[in-house]
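This is your field. Please look over both lines of this record.
***
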Amino acid sequence: MKKILFLCLSFALTATAQKKQGASKYDTITLGGGCYWCVEAVYEKLKGVQSVVSGFSGGKTTNPTYEEVSTGRTGFAESVQITYDSSVTNLDEIFKVFFTVHDPTTLNRQGADEGTQYRSVIFYKNEEQKLAAQAILAALKKAKVYDNPIVTSLEPFIKFYKAEAYHQNYYENNKSQPYCQMVIQPKVAKFEKLFKDRLKKKK
């Protein structure tokens, strides 16, 4: 935990130092870190993030449904597409959050959620995103943050399909559900503790 916290603080400083001045510049990054409800709930609270959409990426068919993806046979991963203001946050910080709130050492599994649809994956859309992802992976491995090898894959972004409407903002709309209370809420609490200076102001 000390190593993870130290890395988080280091990357936070990097992100702050790299803030761009002037007009906002919006960009997107697509990530898979287990159940998209969990990942979405966290990033919706990060300062600089404009929107988080739950959906699917990494497969080869068109317009996949949740039921199809949940079989684990489509090649798709449950993913979130994050739109962010690069004058407020950046890839370093977004990746820092990613590696803090999910376990990148469990192959095709996060907790009780198991299957290729729950794999840890970064879908890079250009060379900048690929290099940034490679850099943080190298830093984590060098620092030996995890006891087990990191299995997060880097895959070229091809297409993102938005999931059904009831999957969007799932945590905010279903906080009383057992899965939200037992699985998502602890991840959100961890994020809020470690990134308390980077939270959006409550409306």
Q: What stands out?
A: Confidence is low (pLDDT under 50) at residues 12-21. The chain is about 40% helix and 20% strand. Helices lie at 2-17, 36-43, 66-69, 91-101, 127-143, 170-173, 178-194. The beta strands are 26-33, 49-57, 77-85, 109-110, 113-114, 120-124, 153-156, 160-162.
